[in-house]
């Protein structure tokens, strides 16, 4: 069972440069959340702050009753045991084979015997589909396999929170699709809290239970997937639907002249909200909601064609 992460009034800056300020959100226990934002908006900084690698200027991050923004190093060490992290490039030790890479946290942080270590390592490698590749070096395998090996290593201590820093970075669309399915299947199996930082819009539209968007040094919105995918808020609408019209420009924000030139242009229609990706076995995850439930509960009419054939049933139409 995952644990809740409650963030309140979080602010982080480097020198005079404010990265983001007054960020408040609650990442629900056991759910999959995605954090989006244009390049340079501090998504990876947010992950590093959540795990205590960076200290915020203000605000709190409460996990299991402990505020990791102000706790002692000893308390932080204990809280970090709840985390597993998949880094952008997998962060494999190049001189170690995959088995030893995955075994590394167990050998460093537990007193398990080598036979116990082997049982855990092989279990996690089987979860990510790498059984048979344990003797290969990171340089001998594809980027997708390195990501899966990094994920196996992130899981060996049975974390209750798993952070994914751009897991699709460097992967082609097909391998990104396989990785997305793996993430959903893992969440169904281990019921941990997942937070994914990504630029991939298809991932954001189909995988998570909740979506957040960082923009212009603040959290523009955070909430259930259907809330953001049906939102008319300009920056949310533009980013989640990969549109050119809106406040985001090549240098993050558009200037006043660009916005003035766009004001009479008709916005493209919101695309249909896709069905959320389900586990491979077809059994819904604990946190997965029926298609259209949020829209129905809040009186929101989703874009035409949303949820395919399930939409009429889900909305009661």
UniProtKB/TrEMBL annotation:
GO terms for molecular function: ATP binding; ATP hydrolysis activity. The keyword Transport applies. Keywords: ATP-binding, Nucleotide-binding, Transport. InterPro entries: AAA+_ATPase, ABC_transporter-like_ATP-bd, ABC_transporter-like_CS, P-loop_NTPase. Residues 254-263 have a biased composition (Acidic residues). It comes from the Bacteria. Residues 247-317 are annotated as: Disordered. Residues 5-241 form the ABC transporter domain. The keyword Transport applies. PANTHER family: INTERMEMBRANE PHOSPHOLIPID TRANSPORT SYSTEM ATP-BINDING PROTEIN MLAF, PROTEIN TRIGALACTOSYLDIACYLGLYCEROL 3, CHLOROPLASTIC. This is ABC transporter ATP-binding protein.
